[in-house]
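new request in #modeling-help
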Amino acid sequence: MTHTTVAAYASPAPKAPLAKTTIPRRALGEHDILIEIKFAGICHSDIHQVNADWGVGTYPMVPGHEIAGVVAEVGSGVSKYALGDRVGVGCFVDSCRECENCKAGDEQYCTGAGGMYGTYNSRGRDGEPTYGGYSTHIVVDENYALRIPEGIELDVAAPLLCAGITLYSPLAHWNAGPGTKLAIIGLGGLGHMGVKIAHALGAEVTVLSQTLSKREDGLRLGADHYYATSDPATFEELAGRFDLILNTVSANLDLNAYLSLLRTDGTLVQIGGPEHPMEVAPFALIPGRKSLSGSMIGGIRETQEMLDFCAQHGIGSEIELIEATQINEAYERVQKSDVRYRFVIDASTI
Ligand SMILES: [Zn+2]
Ligand SMILES: [Zn+2]
């Protein structure tokens, strides 16, 4: 078998607008499945990578790691999926499978050479460049695909593959549930998923946003409280309040001010990835035995757990569905935070 050629939207060079093109997809290996992509979410990190904000990547670059579709073909040894199954692909398509983290199901923290194999802007096990979800089809090893349960539409499921798991994983790791006083900083693509999931887990959810402009949305999505961080009174009123704070903001914040909102033994988890370092005063952590931590997406097993949980609780992303020709415009709007709350590309328009 030889590779197949499929349609995709790619950026030909750093910062260049995306345009329609064709890309190769590898021939189906024994454990591979061919997915007909139905929907692909636009993650802010797609834009960072197209713009080479985190270093120059490989071009042409086909972004997209929030992929939902159906199985269109299976390799001879595939046992987990059958034709027509509803499946998703997230931020990675393989990993070393041998390191401590892979064995523990934390493939996202793979310590093998090169780490996890990114869904795009990376290399596959075959050494060839990987191309993401802004495309009509993708070939992936069955062990790195996820089952999308009945009960979630594929369009609102797509963003769960990155935004959903990015919030679910720390909520699960730090045992957010009934009795947990949780704050989420930022109500964007990530934050809005956190509000929905944390509310379904039973936590008491507070949104900390720059202004109150999205307050109604926040409360509708499941937040119990909503505060503006531009108001200094917020920090006085909420001092020592939270067990757990998830910071989804990708810009530098005064972490010390937010650490002051933790109660004893509380943890602030950094999820957003600002470009520049942030200063932390030791005495923001020492009194109260506070922790500052980080978290990145989730492993395959945990991502499946998240999808099952979301289906059970009727949770999908809030989306604006677009055609492929609107991708560049959508990128501009994401950079202005002008989206409620995730753009999703209808792959039938590619
Ligand atoms: Zn992402
Ligand atoms: Zn590994």
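bot summary: DSSP finds eleven helices and 17 strands in the chain.
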